[in-house]
Write a structure and sequence with these properties.
Elements lengths: L4 H6 L3 E3 L2 H10 L4 H6 L3 E3 L5 E3 L4 E7 L5 E8 L7 E3 L15 H11 L1 E5 L2 H9 L5 E3 L10 H4 L5 E7 L2 H16 L4 E6 L5 H6 L3 H9 L2 E2 H11 L6 H15 L4 H15 L16
Parallel strand pairs: 7-8, 7-9, 9-10
Antiparallel strand pairs: 1-4, 2-3, 4-5, 5-6, 10-11
Helix pairs in contact: 7-10, 10-11, 10-12, 11-12
Length: about 280
Amino acid sequence: RGISEASREKFELGYAPASLETLNFLRSHGYVMSEAIEYGVAGMGESGAPYARFIERLTFPIYTPSGKLVGFGGRTLSNHPAKYVNSPQTKYFNKSQLLYGYHLAKESIFKRHSIIITEGYLDVIMLHQAGFTNAVATLGTALTHEHIPFITRGDPEVIVAYDGDNAGINAALKASMLLSHHGIRGGVVLFGGGMDPADMVQNGMSMELEHLFRSPQPFIEFAIERIIKKYPLHDPLAKQNALEEAMSYLKTLPHALQESYVGLVSSTLNINQNLIKVQTHKPKK
């Protein structure tokens, strides 16, 4: 995939061999099996025999924001059906809170006032290699409320950079709704043509990436557009459902923002703006 030697060292890429080799390695370095299981490096089979959780995989160490190693990601090198796996949930490792590469990206995030959130480990590595050192990735999960404290450190602009397939679009929609609900500024970049950020870097398209990251589609615009696109608007009932879902989303936002985006909803649906009612707050008795 074009990963340089410097990137391999920076991200500490490794290799997990066959299960028995890993277990023997752990034992030879003084680790007892209960520790390996506690930390999620090994598991216990139904027969009561231990096994390594990462077998014939390229490994990606995962750190906390403060730089403490808490788990691994692994990409298969033997065409295993599970292309990627992560360490299991432990008291040390919560994949819904962590962001891959954040401990390496945080200085750049604070300096640039911008964070790029991608879907994959290789995307992060290749973006850093191309100079986009403010890139991080979720650990095979959607963005959650638990990610917000990390994302908002330093009040950066948040760029959600996902694949342009259906899964990527749906994930970007959920992320946009979550981030806009929290009043976080930023927007979405989608990659088309079956390309991802790692592919673009490998193909020498860093200038194109720079342009995309400079002009993301704002979260609220993206969310409204994608909500409405789900419906066949030639059907009056579907158009009504699209309006209701779009307004349901808008009502999660502050009142001033609701009013600002009524025009976008009406123009996208091609209906009279007067038919759209924004939320009004009745005074408490």
